[in-house]
Every structure is written in C-alpha cells, then in structure tokens.
Amino acid sequence: MYILAIDSATPVAGVALIHDKKLIREDFVNFKKTHSETLMPMADKVLHDCEIEIKDLAAIAVTIGPGSFTGLRIGLAAAKGLSLASAKPLIGVSTLDVLAHNLAYTNSLVCPLLDARKQEVYTAFYDGGGLYPQRLTKDMACSPEELVKQLIEKADQTAKENIILMGDGYSPYAQFFQDALQERLSIPPPHLMLPRAAALGSLACRRWEQASFDDVLTLRPVYVRLSEAEYRLGKGEL
To answer: Domains in the chain, please, with CATH?
Structure first.
C-alpha cells in the first residue's frame, strides 16, 4: 500500500512516499522558490526515484489548512489533479494535525502555531500522550496574548506542566512567548519544528485503514480566517 503525501500549506514544500506505514522517501524544501515551481517536480522525482507510478498508489494525501492561502490552493490543486487523473482516493488532513504529529508520547500540552500575519497565529491544542495527537480544541486564529491566556487555562485544566510550541508562528513572537510562559515552555529541535510530509503520510495511513476518504470534487481548503479580498468585500471596499 503506497500513499503519496503532498504538503504546501506553509512556506515549506514537502512530498513523502509511504509504503505499508514505512517512510521510504521524503523531500523537504524551505528555501525561496514558490510552491508552483517546486511541488510537482518534487512529487515526480519522489515517485521516479522510488520506481513507483501513479497507478501503484493506494491514495493521495494533502494538507488542507490552515496556512498560506496560495500554498493551500497549489497543494490541493496538485493533489486533486493526481487523484482525478488516476482515480485514486484523496485524503485531506489538517495542517495543524500534521504539525502536532511530529511529536508523540509526551506528557506536554502540544500547540502547533502557523503564522497568520496581522499579528495573529493559527493554532489548536493537542494532548500528545499517544502515538497520534488528540485534539483538545478547534482551529482558531488569535493574537499571541490571547493564545498564552488560553494555553495556561488549558494546561491547568489538563494538568500539563509543560507546553510545547512549534511551527513558523513561533519565531515572530518568540521573545513574548518565552517571557510569558517561562519555565513551562519547551521548543522542539529544528527537524521537528515545521510540517513534514512524512507526518502527513502517517496520518493518511490511519485514514486509509478506516476507509475515510474525501470527495475530490467538494474538498476545500480550511482557511479559518477570511482572505484579504473577502474581508474587503465584506466591508464594501471592493
């Protein structure tokens, strides 16, 4: 059983190939070029180098947000195109779930953060005590100040002494988080800090076993917050 995992929800572009729950190839890029330039060549190279054709796949997985509006559209368009062309099932997975899945078997409150711009982050809280992250909240967009307030409340409710922050939403507000959370704060090492297509593939394997697939025609990105154009349209500025 082969699953091709495609992630372009953030500045990272990643493609992974999973075979029977084993990672056999992963490409990861977090440098300058746009996803429209890198994503499909990466997917083609991963399949070619592993001597796998589209027809050999069991499913195609993709991150569906939150994240970069453009990045999400590029990744979803690529995954949908491959799914339609090959008649293979499509599996859409939350970007925050993927990021949280970088960790397992930790007694900490896990909090992935994605940079939402406008002095906000996209986030959700997880219990990382098992192999797979267990959601404690819905996706949300909030300020760092509101995030810290909710984090402390949730950590106290769940008896979690330690709080792990991860993702590209951490760096812009790193000093604030360090000052606000102090000794309760932990940060993963660099190779676990950003979304990985391998983690997406792992979650997709679980969904495949459950025969939990998405409709390729109706699957949409999860933006959480309105785009700038939608916001201005709602205010009558467009």
So the answer is: 2-95+195-234 (3.30.420.40), 103-192 (3.30.420.200)
Distance CA 4, CA 28 (A): 14
Within 10 angstroms of residue 28's Cβ, the number of other Cβ atoms is: 18
Q: pTM of the prediction?
A: 0.94
**Over the stretch 198-208, which tens digit does the pLDDT of each residue have?**
999 999 999 99
- Read off the pLDDT of residues 17-64 as tens digits, 9 standing for 90 and up: 999 999 999 999 998 778 988 999 999 999 999 999 999 999 999 999
